[in-house]
Design goal:
The chain contains 3 helices and 12 strands; from the N terminus they run H-E-E-E-E-E-E-E-E-H-E-E-E-H-E. It is of the alpha+beta class and 172 residues long. It has a single domain, classed as OB fold (Dihydrolipoamide Acetyltransferase, E2P) (Beta Barrel), CATH 2.40.50.
Length: 172
């Protein structure tokens, strides 16, 4: 009686093993994605926050945000979009625009927004990401040649230092 068995010596992978290997590869790829964010900031996969990492210089032209898709635009004096990522400048607070609580706050808020756009458009800058806020915005120190753009706004009277906590208004 002849024995009929499988040929090939058993070194071929069976279909269930192929599926399992593909699934493991897909999971590893998903876990690696935060390491390929702009600027190379590796994310903390459990908390969803980025580690503090200075990025390679960014250089783009910023518009003012409107109804068009928000790619590279300025929202207000301390918030902007770059490459589709919403960034909140971490070291400053600027007057509110949406809504402003008085005419002086609106005037200062508009001036801060225009000045931030000017500063961002003036040349390459770095983002030192430091997590996200409760609104999902990336918190970052924005700098050029080692100088914080936020502190430039402070020195011009268009912002104030911010280190957390409740802020008072800009209406005197």
């Amino acid at each position: 009686m002849s024995r009929r068995g499988r040929s090939g010596g058993g070194d071929r992978l069976e279909p269930p093993y192929i599926v399992m290997i593909a699934l493991i590869a897909a999971i590893l790829l998903l876990l690696a994605l935060p390491f390929f964010r702009p600027g190379g900031a590796a994310g903390n996969l459990l908390s969803g926050t980025a580690t503090s990492t200075a990025a390679a210089p960014y250089s783009t032209q910023f518009a003012l945000c409107g109804s068009a898709p928000r790619i590279d635009c300025v929202v207000d004096g301390d918030t902007f979009w770059i490459g589709g990522e919403k960034v909140r400048i971490a070291d400053i607070d600027t007057p509110e625009l949406h809504p402003a609580r008085c005419a002086e706050e609106e005037r200062l808020g508009h001036a801060a927004k225009m000045r931030l756009r000017e500063l961002l458009n003036a040349g390459p800058f770095a983002l030192d990401r430091d997590g996200t806020d409760r609104y999902g915005r990336t918190l970052a120190i924005v700098s050029r040649d080692g100088r914080s753009l936020g502190m430039m706004l402070v020195s011009e009277g268009l912002a104030r230092r911010y280190a957390g906590g409740r802020r008072s208004g800009w209406c005197g």
